[in-house]
Amino acid sequence: MVRLYEYQGKGLLRRAGVKVPPGRAARSAAEATVIAREIGAPVVLKAQVFITGRAAVGGIKFAENAMAAERVAGRDFLGRTFRGQRCDVVLVERKLNVAREMYAAVVVDNDARMPLLIFSSVGGTGVEEIAANHPEALVKRYLDAARGLYGYEARELARRAGLRGRELVAVADVLVKLWRVARDAEARAAEINPLVVTDEGEVVAADCRVTADDYAVYRHPELDVQVAREFDRPPTELDLIAYNVEKDDYRGTFYFVQLAEGFAPEDRCVALHGAGGGGSMMSMDAALAEGFKVANFCDTSGNPPASKVYRAACILLAQKNVVGYFGSGSGVASQEQFHSARGLVKAFREVWLDVPCVERLGGNQEERAIRILTEYTKDLPAPVECYGKDTPARHCARRLRELVDGYDYGVRHEKPPGLPHNSSYSFRTVTGGTVSYDYARCEGCDSKVCVADCVPQILKLEDGRPALNIGAEEAARGRCTECLACEVECRARGNGGGRITLPIAGLHEYLKKTR
Question: What is the pTM of this model?
Fold first, then answer.
């Protein structure tokens, strides 16, 4: 599920015809001043953070005029953290004169597999409290997703909750429009709390919370969701970089969440690279039990290509000041583990790994994967140890602790110059990568391992040199699975003539800022 900020949810309500207080979001104190001046009345300022009970922690404040709004926005909101969440946006709205509060929501009932409309003519901190204290004011109705909610049905619900007259008609209209918002946004939940009646008799959505279905977000660019995952905070820059790798590549899973930023080496944070949700959580527990903190959660599973594992490893190692790299998953994966091993080898060699690494690559062909990862990283500055499914995650975490404790982090390791490469032949891959061959090197190669180990078998020998056995367009559409044999195996067992470049949008710029 994907949470929307209050100002985003109110934008959906406004477009649907539900009354919301005049105002908009500000990203600077000066902008808050302009908005308050346009409103021309006392305003309320609300920190746009994904927490409940904002008022209790100072996340909602009032200002009598524009100058006060500027002071409150700059001093009390923007740049501050509320329960660990930084506030970068503040909602500035007209202060309402509230006569009474109500509650309205449309939520997806997973058990019934239907949308459920909930309305209460009495407000409160939550629907559970309302149900306990005012059961007569609370009404519910399951909705047919295709049929929806008609006006007469909404009026009957409002009547059952105790409303009468013009108030009943106005609230019923809000309920119908709230249903349309939930349906059109494919929301898991759309909640107005409180729905208020003002002293002037208007029915206004004073606060709202909309949660969208992450699997449907791609159909709704109007929601302006950056990362279609459930976060309790705004995504970090590295979260965005990782998500952009995943969102258009459906081969396997790359789930990444950054858990810590700005840590120092003495915090003993490790980059965590799991495979399988349960196995990843088990491995996280093992790392914590050995005295580490984890900089991130990461899961590459579901038979990801080597290229996705490579990109994941590069992103994990972009986290400054990690003291180690811990890879460990479920140990029962059906995917061929040598693909993951090749992805890791390519990443470790490119960044010239300088922190200890322990990998647990359990699953199909794990022996081959262990050999690849162990043998192809022997010349790296930091030790790389690899284990299979029969070695417990706790043992692997303990080995990482021992390696970290004995490693000299004060030595600077310069990456040696790479092999010269002059592209003689190249073709594109499905994720924008480029496979290229230096035929001068290929002619001196006896193994032709790039062709022999090409998993999709799309290469052939042409005059003793590797070339596509299919059309270039077909390779770019996905027949080239980016198994990385063309580079990893070629470098280790051939003559270094093959190379694949795999772009990671935004990572280079991120490293320039953080290194």
Answer: 0.83
